[in-house]
Write a structure and sequence with these properties.
The protein is mainly α. Helices cover 77% and strands 0% of the residues.
């Protein structure tokens, strides 16, 4: 039993982090009323967290390689806990947003090292089992956030969604200190400051640009400026990393079609999660469900994802990632396609259940294979880099998905409502705030718009699935594989 305590520590930290990306959503109206702030300002309680995750995640994985992954995990856990306390005690909006940003920094450092910690603690069948359960916890946490947020906000206070992190952090900290061994460190003389700074510029500008695109449109001047800065930062980052003898991110990995395809699969799966944002908006803004009711409607995906990862995914560690990742993406495609076909003007919350079950199966089966393939792409002492890269692509996929799908959702609603009894722009925008008029035309437009959101996601998942079948090869490299083969991302042949 002792050997599984590191898994428990990593799962507790990951659960807390992922829940905090969604738990705030249902509490924003209560926060705004309590602090006397407009709801538009409170959106930054969500946005600043996303921004911090996008900037810090990859750097944290690299620092874990240099200073020790357990040390970075423990420090980040302490930062996360203290920031959660500050969020719960915040007396005004500025303090809450600032504390939430610090919480995002701590969360990014945690998620940037968790997969690498599992890779260092377990090998072979045990690694497959550990990654399976960890992936199951991630899927369950993403869907459980709205449920937990609804319960705590409705029966206690919005401050409880932050205070609950404190006891979990204490338990996780004790388990990490007592049972998680320190990892070997990469032989590198100094921190890659240039890489960290240029990547932060790229990630920060891109994430902020995506946030602005969702709020103000893709063609707005400040949005385009952010994307321009992001492009320049990315080019400079790539140039500097190629000149480094021991770079924060080995650019050569992206010359490997298998590695790039796995990253595409990570982003596609993240966009599927982004669909939940607009599913929740539809459930609350069109169907008029309570936050708790909307969370309950997502239970089929949460339960299926957990069961699939823990009962199926963990047993597939010897199967080629081409099969597991491809099957997961195929199930995501089927699930999103089912949602598109079944959403109509008379649809209700349970209409979504079959599609959510298929998406949950896809996440549960594909997740462990993706994680194993990423770990196999680099030597053990650089697993923090791979872990951080995967977490960064996951975060960008979610941010891009929320922004792009938001344009699809609102544009489709406005188009569907044109010529109807409700003003298209007003009704479409009011759905997100829960103030949409209760009219048949709004129900029809909401279902139509959400259906297109799922259709777009299905198309991306199908593309990622095809690329996986064509370019992902081999099974996870064994623990004793030569470092040269692992470092270049060449998996073992099947």
């Amino acid at each position: 039993m002792r050997k599984w305590w590191p898994l428990v520590a990593v799962c507790l930290g990951s659960f807390m982090l992922i829940v905090d990306t969604t738990v705030v959503t249902v509490a924003l109206p209560d926060m705004a009323r309590s602090l006397g702030a407009p709801l538009s300002d409170m959106q930054w309680v969500l946005n600043i967290y996303t921004l911090a995750l996008g900037i810090v995640t990859l750097s944290a994985g690299s620092l874990g390689d240099l200073f020790g992954k357990r040390r970075i995990f423990v420090v980040s856990l302490i930062v996360f806990a203290l920031a959660s306390l500050a969020c719960g005690l915040a007396g005004n909006t500025a303090v809450l947003i600032a504390a939430r940003g610090v919480q995002g920094v701590g969360g990014a450092a945690m998620i940037g090292t968790t997969l690498a910690l599992l890779g260092g603690c377990y090998e072979g069948k045990d690694r497959g089992t550990a990654i399976g359960y960890w992936s199951a916890v991630l899927g369950m946490a993403a869907a459980a956030g709205p449920i937990l947020g609804g319960v705590l906000t409705q029966y206690l206070s919005w401050r409880a969604i932050f205070f609950i992190n404190l006891p979990i952090s204490v338990v996780t900290l004790l388990l990490a200190v007592l049972f998680v061994p320190e990892s070997p460190r990469a032989e590198r003389a100094r921190v890659d400051v240039a890489g960290i700074v240029t990547f932060a510029v790229f990630a920060g500008a891109l994430t902020y640009g995506l946030i602005r695109a969702g709020e103000h449109g893709w063609a707005q001047g400040a949005t385009l400026l952010c994307f321009g800065i992001a492009a320049a930062g990315l080019v400079l980052f790539a140039v500097l990393e190629q000149a480094q003898q021991a770079p924060m991110l080995d650019i050569r990995l992206f010359g490997n079609a298998s590695f790039c395809t796995v990253m595409l699969g990570v982003m596609a799966s993240s966009v599927a999660f982004a669909c939940l944002v607009y599913t929740s908006i539809w459930l609350q803004g069109v169907l008029r469900l309570s936050p708790l009711g909307a969370g309950v409607a997502l239970i089929p995906m949460a339960v299926t994802s957990f069961l699939a990862s823990s009962l199926i995914g963990k047993r597939l560690h010897t199967v080629s990632p081409r099969v597991t990742i491809g099957l997961g993406l195929l199930l995501n495609t089927v699930g999103c396609g089912l949602e598109y076909l079944m959403l109509h003007s008379s649809a209700n919350a349970w209409t979504l259940a079959p599609g959510l079950v298929a998406i949950g199966l896809g996440i549960g089966i594909g997740g462990p294979g993706t994680n194993g393939a990423v770990l196999a792409s680099v030597p053990t002492e650089r697993s923090g880099m791979a872990s951080g890269a995967m977490a960064t692509f996951r975060q960008f996929g979610q941010a891009l998905g929320v922004a792009a799908l938001g344009v699809v959702f609102l544009s489709a609603m406005s188009h569907r409502l044109a010529g109807g009894t409700a003003d298209p722009r007003t009704a479409a925008a009011s759905v997100a705030s829960g103030a949409a008029p209760d009219l048949p035309s709004v129900h029809d437009a909401g279902a139509y718009a959400l259906g297109l959101v799922f259709l777009a996601t299905a198309a991306l998942s199908a593309l990622a699935c095809l690329c996986t079948v064509l370019w992902v090869r081999g099974a996870e490299a064994p623990a004793h594989a030569p470092e040269s083969a692992r470092a270049t991302g060449q998996p073992a042949q099947t």
